[in-house]
């Protein structure tokens, strides 16, 4: 089937999409957007998190056909040109990135949190990031990054 | 595989009548896992997310009709006051990403014995509105769950909505799992007090082939509670209630927990949630008298 979708503000089209395919596969393998990562394909790790119509979701659990005529924003769509989003900057500066596999999903989840709650408490940060697993950092630096980004916004 | 994209519920029902083996997909948080892991290759997917009417809820005279496609995140945000039990259960589902997408209709469609909304729907006497091109029928929650991952829907039927009364009294839900987020229940329990009718709803999840009422516990408690002159509960009443709730379960040993642990934990959850619910009721009575 053909899927037409707005991704990061641009209208995109993919042909010969398998009907049972996920949005994650569509983004990575057909639209050349490998930012969203595939680690579990079962909603557990959050590394595939993207905005779908402004709501963060696991793109591995959205069927490609479900995004027809909708809007998707991936981690690639957060920076403005060469200028990183404050959340991205804070992740770099706080040392919240080690292997980096979890980073795109965490950045999107943190971005959404700060849009909704500009000054989140620690429990609010933990709750908002509960769907994102990181096997490297032990999360402390990630919490630092979110606090830093919040302070700067 | 076909990908069917109805824009209205009527269209969806017509498609389901034509192709009863088409698998509905709402939030996809169950269906996509099965597809990604090749556990399921349905001949067609029937996407319900374009149907605006399924994503709506309404309240008329204290009666709520919650569209099957309302995601957990919106139940938590918008219905916490009127349906506290359902909102509590919704808060424990998965993670923010899962709650943004997953729906009560999907929980009912999957009919997993561990689904978190089921005990709440049972305790609150929910009624499931099932629709097909042939018409609509109302299925009480107690008649909806038929077996492990089996429900009362006919092949041509879809879930339109869930009907519940705005909570007439205190409601509680509690679940045991290995951590706080992203966890399938080892066992779960819901209680709803109906003070005007002097009745109690209580149901267990993840502790039998289907979620089910703890009928003996409900009857025992309704008789013991002093509804008109509420006073603190006797420990013996809480204990007996817990025992009867545990007896209502017929759990199995599995990777998440042993049958014996599940029974023990259910008794604890039942005592605890009863304590909270009765405390709520007492608080309300004192406020009303003052
Ligand atoms: C990481 C993760 C964590 C999870 N944690 C929990 C948890 O803590 N508690 C819990 O209860 N569940 C949990 N789940 C399971 C799942 O999120 C829930 O069951 C959810 O309610 C499913 O809703 P959905 O809209 O995504 O359903 P879908 O996946 O779209 O559908 C589920 C089933 O219902 C059918 N269906 C959907 N809508 C309808 C309809 N309107 N009429 C008829 N049939 C329909 C589908 O065909 C399918 O069989 C989790 C899942 C994941 C991936
Ligand atoms: S790849 Fe989607 S949640 Fe892990
Ligand atoms: S940095 Fe490696 S998984 Fe998070």
Kindly list the characteristics that best describe this protein:
heterodimer; A: 153 residues; alpha+beta; Ubiquitin-like (UB roll); DNA polymerase, domain 1; 5-stranded mixed β-sheet; 5 strands; 33% helix; B: 290 residues; Enolase-like, domain 1; 5-stranded antiparallel β-sheet; 37% helix; binds flavin-adenine dinucleotide; binds FE2/S2 (inorganic) cluster; FAD (chain B)
Model description:
The complex is a heterodimer of chains A (153) and B (290). With 153 residues, chain A is of the alpha+beta class. Chain A folds into two domains: 3-77, Beta-grasp domain (Ubiquitin-like (UB roll)); 86-151, DNA polymerase, domain 1 (Orthogonal Bundle), CATH 1.10.150.120. Chain A contains five helices and five strands; from the N terminus they run E-E-H-E-E-E-H-H-H-H. A five-stranded mixed beta sheet of chain A has the order 2-1-5-3-4, sandwiched between helices. In chain A, a hairpin with a 2-residue loop joins strand 1 and strand 2 (10-14). Chain A is globular, with a radius of gyration of 15 Å. With 290 residues, chain B is of the alpha+beta class. Chain B folds into two domains: 2-41 and 52-165, Uridine Diphospho-n-acetylenolpyruvylglucosamine Reductase, domain 3 (2-Layer Sandwich); 171-289, CO dehydrogenase flavoprotein, C-terminal domain (Enolase-like, domain 1), CATH 3.30.390.50. In chain B, the strands form four sheets. Chain B has a five-stranded antiparallel beta sheet. Chain B has a four-stranded antiparallel beta sheet with strand order 11-12-13-14, sandwiched between helices. In chain B, helix 3 crosses helix 4 (84-91). The longest helix of chain B has 31 residues, at 259-289. Chain B starts with a strand and ends with a helix. Classes of the chains: A alpha+beta (153), B alpha+beta (290). At the A-B interface, strand 4 of A face helix 2, strand 3 and helix 5 of B. The complex binds flavin-adenine dinucleotide and FE2/S2 (inorganic) cluster (FES) (2 copies). Flavin-adenine dinucleotide (FAD) sits between chains B (23-31, 33, 48, 68, 92-94, 98, 101-103, 105-107, 109-110, 115-116, 158-159, 182, 184) and A (42-44).
């Amino acid at each position: 089937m053909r899927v037409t979708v707005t991704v990061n503000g641009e209208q995109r089209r993919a042909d010969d999409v398998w009907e049972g395919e996920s949005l994650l596969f569509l983004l990575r393998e057909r639209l050349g957007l490998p930012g969203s990562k595939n680690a579990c394909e079962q909603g557990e790790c959050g590394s595939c998190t993207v905005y779908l119509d402004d709501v963060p979701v696991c793109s591995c659990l959205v069927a490609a056909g479900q995004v027809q005529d909708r809007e998707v924003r991936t981690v690639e769509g957060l920076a403005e040109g060469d200028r990183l989003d404050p959340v991205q900057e804070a992740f770099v500066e706080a040392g919240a990135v080690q292997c980096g596999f979890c980073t795109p999903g965490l950045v999107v989840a943190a971005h959404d949190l700060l849009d909704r709650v500009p000054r989140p408490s620690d429990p609010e940060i933990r709750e908002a990031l509960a769907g994102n697993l990181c096997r490297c950092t032990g999360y402390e630096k990630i919490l630092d990054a979110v606090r830093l980004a919040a302070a700067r916004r | 595989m076909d990908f069917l994209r109805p824009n209205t519920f009527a269209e969806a029902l017509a498609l389901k009548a034509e192709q009863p083996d088409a698998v509905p997909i709402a939030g996809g948080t169950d269906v996509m896992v099965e597809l990604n892991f090749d556990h399921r290759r349905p001949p067609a997917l029937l996407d319900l997310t374009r149907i605006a009417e399924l994503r709506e809820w309404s309240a008329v005279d204290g009666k709520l009709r919650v569209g099957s496609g309302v995601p957990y995140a919106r139940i938590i945000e918008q219905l916490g006051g009127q349906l506290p039990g359902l909102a509590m259960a919704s808060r424990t589902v998965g993670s923010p990403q899962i709650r943004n997408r997953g729906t009560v209709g999907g929980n009912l469609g999957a009919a997993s014995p561990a689904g978190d909304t089921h005990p709440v729907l049972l305790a609150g006497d929910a009624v499931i509105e099932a629709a097909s091109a042939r018409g609509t029928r109302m299925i009480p929650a107690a008649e909806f769950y038929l077996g492990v991952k089996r429900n009362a829907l006919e092949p041509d039927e879809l879930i339109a909505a869930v009907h519940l009364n705005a909570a007439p009294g205190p409601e509680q839900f509690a679940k045991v799992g290995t951590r706080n987020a992203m966890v399938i229940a080892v066992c779960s329990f819901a209680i709803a007090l109906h003070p005007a009718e002097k009745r109690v709803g209580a149901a267990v999840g993840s502790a039998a082939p289907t979620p089910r009422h703890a009928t003996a516990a409900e009857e025992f408690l309704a008789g013991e509670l002093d509804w008109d002159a509420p006073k603190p509960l006797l420990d013996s009443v809480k204990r007996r209630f817990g025992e009867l709730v545990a007896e209502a379960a017929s759990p199995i040993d599995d990777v998440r927990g042993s049958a014996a642990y599940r029974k023990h934990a259910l008794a604890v959850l039942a005592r605890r949630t009863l304590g909270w619910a009765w405390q709520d009721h007492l608080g309300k009575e004192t406020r009303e008298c003052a």
